[in-house]
Specification:
This protein is mainly α and 576 residues long. 37% of the residues lie in helices and 4% in strands. It contains 23 helices and 6 strands. It has helices spanning 2-18, 41-49, 79-82, 95-107, 109-112, 121-142, 166-183, 197-217, 230-247, 261-267, 285-288, 298-301, 312-315, 338-342, 348-352, 372-375, 418-430, 436-441, 443-449, 473-485, 492-498, 502-505, 557-562; strands at residues 72-73, 277-281, 309-310, 359-362, 368-370, 412-416. The strands form 3 sheets. The protein has a two-stranded antiparallel ribbon. A two-stranded antiparallel ribbon has the order 2-6. A hairpin with a 5-residue loop joins β4 and β5 (368-370). α8 packs antiparallel against α9 (230-247) and α8 packs parallel to α17. The longest helix has 22 residues, at 121-142.
Length: 576
């Protein structure tokens, strides 16, 4: 009984910590209430409000979200990439939110007995959505886990269950999202309030694609899945994405200006009427500053690189504007200067990476300052420090009226329609069923927005520098498109993990930057070809990511003590 009480105490502690999180729209937080609380649809709504938190809708990162991958580099080395993580000794594996949502399912029927479904189905759909999201977060972090659908008591035998199979957990996540789609509103809304069925479809395509590729590319490794069937997941991913593409109320944002639309999308101050942004986080001082101060200062922080940068590996992924990779295109002007690199490239290059002639600041008196002023002082002080040279401007608005330290009202983008297009194309390609019509429905829409040539299935030019030379040309190009379109938005590590691609992209490699000759006073090491090599001394042999271990986190030792039927994740056994 002592062990059970300890386990419950950990769950309660996690729940109490969750109650302190900064919520998406400043909804009032509700602790788990007495069973008599659920008497009306409004009670269900109030309870589900607590799930609109940073646990599920994280703050949009100031300088980008790919620092745990090969896309971005900062001043510190990511410990997963370095291979230096140790086994967690304490902490929870995330069942607090599952307990909360299961409490809803155990008690919402008190409302069902008094009200018609239409009065509360939105909140029922939300409960299925957040059950799915809670388990998906655990699946990505720890792999297979116990599937629990009701609130556990101190004497519940499920406390000592062993893990359910990864395939069962993934299947149940997708089924929960089926239920979410059925109950959630089809209304587009303004995107910063409550989720809808289209968001559930987007996440369903994401989950199914993640699991399908995980099972396909981790087969035969310690992370492989017994009896795996990747194609069932690819079919579901394509189906979910196609339903959203064909029937949903979304489209890509475009004003017909391929040289600015992509940049402008992320710099907007309000996405209420955006055709592309499906869900976003609003910061409103009038609503929340007096109640609970929040920290939001993205534009203020991004005025300077502040020790953050994009890598050469990402920069080299951008095609030339003839649709050919830089390794074979006659339009590529070389790496001698960033200005040269940007010539004749996919316009997303200079809408994601600051160009010298781009506007850094629009002062309140209307005067302008250009990024050339920052590049001229690059790496001379902490503000101007950029280890790889390339400065990220995705999500940055140069208008100084929107720059505020701490209480900035710049919104945060959570979900956008472009992901559905990429998920659809990749799922079709992985299943071996992709057609030119599929590309025209997905990838080529993204390319048209920025004025790039269409991707032609029967006319893909071989790139000698493809990241995955053993895979088909179409999979390589779809992965490239995904990398470029979603750059710095926090997708890259999940992609590397599900593709089992750390051996190609991480192990033994280091992040590189542009030519060091462009920096007047360079404090960083330089490689044999003259490119910035910021971790040359710290990682002389490159990243030490451990292939048989680091794709998943360790199970905390405290959890293994509480439940002897749990087993440690591969590669972590016997490690202190």
């Amino acid at each position: 009984m002592k062990r059970i009480n300890i386990y419950i105490s950990l769950l309660v502690a996690f729940l109490l910590l969750s109650c302190n999180e900064d919520f998406l729209n400043r909804y009032p937080q509700d602790a788990i209430s007495d069973v008599n609380f659920f008497q009306s649809p409004q009670d269900l709504k109030s309870y589900m409000n607590s799930f609109y938190s940073t646990a599920f809708f994280a703050k949009y990162p100031n300088h980008g979200g790919d620092f745990n991958s090969d896309n971005q580099v900062g001043g510190n080395i990511d410990t997963r990439m370095q291979g230096t993580r140790v086994v967690s000794t304490s902490g929870s594996i995330g069942f607090g939110w599952i307990r909360r949502v299961n409490y809803f399912f155990d008690h919402y029927k008190k409302v069902e007995e008094k009200y018609p479904l239409k009065d509360y189905q939105q909140y029922l759909g939300e409960a299925y959505f957040f059950r799915a999201m809670s388990y998906y977060n655990m699946l990505q972090t720890y792999g297979d886990m116990q599937w629990v659908t009701h609130e556990l008591k101190t004497d519940s035998p499920e406390l000592y269950n062993s893990r359910d199979s990864r395939d069962l957990v993934a299947t149940n996540i997708i089924l929960a999202l089926d239920s979410a789609v059925m109950y959630l509103t089809p209304e587009k809304t303004k995107g910063q309030g409550r989720i809808n069925k289209w968001i559930a479809l987007l996440i369903q395509s994401r989950v199914a694609l993640f699991e399908g590729t995980w099972q396909k590319y981790h087969a035969g490794t310690p992370f492989g899945v017994t009896g795996s069937n990747p194609n069932k997941y690819f079919q579901k991913a394509a189906e979910s994405a196609l339903n959203l593409i064909k029937d949903g109320p979304y489209n890509l944002y475009s004003t017909g200006n391929p040289l600015n639309d992509y940049r402008e999308l992320f710099a907007m101050q309000d996405w209420s009427n955006s055709p592309e942004v499906m869900f976003w986080r609003e910061y409103n001082n009038d609503l929340s500053r007096g109640e609970s101060a929040f920290t939001n200062d993205r534009n203020h922080r991004m005025e300077f690189p502040n020790n953050n940068s994009i890598t050469k590996q990402l920069a080299d992924s951008y095609l030339c504007n003839d649709g050919l990779p830089i390794s074979v295109s006659p339009l590529f002007e070389g790496h001698e200067t960033l200005i040269d690199e940007m010539k004749n490239r996919d316009p997303r290059f200079f809408q994601n990476i600051a160009p010298h002639d781009g506007i850094q600041k629009i002062n309140k008196d209307g005067t302008k300052v250009y990024w050339s002023a920052v590049y001229n002082k690059l790496n001379t002080d902490a503000y101007h420090n950029s280890p790889a040279g390339y400065i990220n401007i995705k999500g940055y608005n140069p208008d100084m009226n929107f720059h505020v330290q701490q209480y900035e009202e710049s919104p945060g983008l959570i979900y956008r329609y472009a992901e559905a297009l990429l998920n659809y194309a990749e799922a079709k390609a992985e299943s071996g069923s992709i057609t030119q019509a599929d590309l025209d429905l997905s990838i080529n829409k993204l390319r048209k927005r920025v004025g790039m040539p269409d991707l032609k299935l029967d006319n893909i030019v071989t790139d000698p520098n493809w990241d995955f030379p053993t895979l088909s040309p179409i999979i390589n190009e779809i992965r490239r498109e995904r990398r470029v379109e979603l750059a710095c938005e926090g997708y890259r590590w999940d992609d590397i993990a599900r593709w089992a691609a750390a051996d190609e992209l991480i192990v033994g490699k280091r992040p590189k930057g542009f030519k060091a000759s462009q920096v007047a006073k360079n404090p960083y090491p330089v490689d044999a070809e003259g490119f910035l090599d910021p971790f040359q001394k710290a990682l002389p042999s490159g990243y030490g990511f451990i292939l048989g271990r680091d794709y998943l986190n360790s199970i905390p030792i405290s959890e293994l003590v509480l439940n002897p039927n749990l087993i440690q994740n591969p590669g972590w056994e016997g490690i202190d």
